[in-house]
């Protein structure tokens, strides 16, 4: 380091864009940037338990290689030198990938999956993994292998899930960006709980490979970031077609890298459908309802035409639960049969729920999903945006597996409280969870911005405008 202390203005809460630019211009080295984040992990991770299988020595070797590559004048990826910890359900060659299960405690893949391959090619320095619930099932991050991940804003509370380790590590400054995946809200719920931005992209936007079912999925990979500009940067790396993923959308990822305009102007004239509960489809706690209402009023103050409206997603509950049970049984049924009693009870119950499904049941769910997609297409001919809660509750106590009631209504299972997220899942539409306010106790609450299928770039612009409007008030 020189006496001028390159990068002295950077902190672990600087934007990923600022960090990447500082590495490229040699204001800070990848080694120095890594040490900032390792120090932060030492400070926060013992309490939060967000990063698992940390390997500081291997990360230091990776940072040294990144600096040497820069010194040789080699081509640089958009994330060159940024420390990164992959979600522990994504296969990373040469690194433990446990899926949060003791059954896979010693599992080390030989090949990267596509999402990981793209992020590594963009130049990151891998330092470890982020914690997940067992096999990513459920929106609270705990497992018997690593324990519970806690909320950076109040460690007595849940960080959400299944990308809870990723969101907690990001919010607390342990990493500048994070990857995740989302079936029923696994990017959006932890983003809301931890006060960061999370995006479930359009179905097909972020291709996945390999998959046990390459032709259809309810789960998608996607980005987490501390602001919308950083989210767009990571999406530009994750998105784009690949010959191994036949259902991928064709637009190249670089279209998401163009800078977003950080002003509320994009809200002016926007036709916004605002809904608290999709016409009574789910319960919402009062403290979440207040923040959601404030978000609608904020958009209206900045020129949006906000109206109470919602699409009819009445088939969504049956569609999601049928397809989820079918996928879980197809993927994990053999494992459950081989290791009865060794998976958490709620997951085992969901896997078993797929066993009695018939071809007629599954075909009916797909028919309903087609109906929901068409209904959303028609809805968005009259509206530009749908705004609703991300999560029906604020972060709940970390000792609970799931909220047992919402707004006084009992929740019969660990899926019931996630309807606000999973009803959007089965439409195939893109959705961004953006911080919108806090409860009286200071806990973060996000709102969910939903756009038409394929409108991911436009949705990023609107989310950036909402973010700017919040800063202006």
Automatic annotation (TrEMBL):
<feature type="region of interest" description="Disordered">
    <location>
        <begin position="146"/>
        <end position="165"/>
    </location>
</feature>
<keyword id="KW-0378">Hydrolase</keyword>
<protein>
    <submittedName>
        <fullName>Amidase</fullName>
        <ecNumber>3.5.1.4</ecNumber>
    </submittedName>
</protein>
<dbReference type="InterPro" id="IPR036928">
    <property type="entry name" value="AS_sf"/>
</dbReference>
<dbReference type="InterPro" id="IPR020556">
    <property type="entry name" value="Amidase_CS"/>
</dbReference>
<dbReference type="Pfam" id="PF01425">
    <property type="entry name" value="Amidase"/>
</dbReference>
<dbReference type="InterPro" id="IPR000120">
    <property type="entry name" value="Amidase"/>
</dbReference>
<feature type="domain" description="Amidase">
    <location>
        <begin position="32"/>
        <end position="460"/>
    </location>
</feature>
<dbReference type="GO" id="GO:0004040">
    <property type="term" value="F:amidase activity"/>
</dbReference>
<dbReference type="InterPro" id="IPR023631">
    <property type="entry name" value="Amidase_dom"/>
</dbReference>
């Amino acid at each position: 380091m020189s006496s001028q202390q390159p990068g002295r203005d950077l902190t672990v809460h600087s934007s990923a864009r600022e960090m990447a630019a500082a590495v490229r211009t040699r204001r800070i080295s990848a080694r120095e940037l890594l040490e900032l984040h390792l120090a932060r992990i030492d400070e926060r991770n013992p309490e939060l338990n967000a990063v698992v299988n940390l390997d500081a020595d291997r990360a230091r070797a990776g940072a040294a290689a990144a600096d040497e590559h820069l010194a040789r004048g080699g081509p640089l990826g958009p994330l060159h030198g940024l420390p990164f910890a992959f979600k522990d359900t994504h296969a990373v060659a040469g690194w433990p990938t446990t899926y949060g299960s003791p059954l896979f405690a010693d599992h080390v893949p030989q090949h990267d999956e596509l999402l990981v391959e793209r992020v590594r090619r963009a130049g990151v320095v891998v330092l470890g993994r982020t914690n997940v619930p067992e096999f990513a099932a459920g929106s609270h991050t705990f497992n018997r292998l690593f324990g519970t991940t806690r909320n950076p804003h109040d460690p007595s509370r849940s960080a959400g899930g299944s990308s809870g380790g990723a969101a907690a590590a990001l919010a607390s400054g342990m990493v500048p960006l994070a990857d995740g995946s989302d079936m029923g809200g696994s990017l959006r719920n932890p983003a809301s709980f931890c006060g960061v931005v999370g995006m479930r992209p359009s179905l097909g936007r972020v291709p996945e490979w390999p998959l046990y079912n390459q032709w259809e999925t309810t789960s998608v990979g996607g980005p987490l970031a501390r602001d919308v500009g950083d989210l767009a940067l990571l999406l530009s790396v994750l998105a784009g077609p690949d010959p191994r993923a036949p259902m991928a959308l064709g637009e190249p990822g670089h279209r998401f890298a163009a800078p977003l305009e950080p002003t509320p102007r994009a809200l002016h004239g926007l036709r916004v459908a605002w809904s608290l509960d999709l016409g009574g489809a789910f319960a919402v706690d009062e403290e979440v309802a207040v923040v959601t209402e404030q978000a609608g009023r904020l958009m209206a103050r900045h020129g949006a035409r906000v109206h109470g409206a919602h699409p009819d997603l009445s088939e969504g509950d049956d569609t999601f639960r049928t397809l989820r049970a079918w996928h879980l049984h197809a993927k994990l049924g053999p494992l459950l049969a081989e290791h009865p009693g060794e998976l958490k009870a709620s997951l085992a119950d969901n896997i078993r729920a797929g066993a009695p499904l018939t071809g007629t049941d599954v075909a009916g769910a797909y028919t309903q999903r087609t109906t929901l997609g068409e209904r959303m297409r028609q809805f968005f001919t009259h509206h530009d945006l749908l705004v609703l809660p991300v999560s029906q509750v604020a972060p709940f106590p970390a000792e609970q597996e799931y909220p047992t009631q919402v707004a006084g209504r009992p929740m019969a299972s660990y899926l019931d409280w996630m309807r606000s997220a999973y009803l959007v899942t089965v439409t195939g539409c893109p959705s961004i969870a953006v911080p919108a306010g806090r409860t009286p106790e200071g806990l973060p609450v996000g709102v969910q911005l939903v756009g038409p299928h394929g409108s991911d770039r436009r949705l990023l612009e609107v989310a950036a405008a909402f973010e700017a409007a919040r800063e202006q008030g």
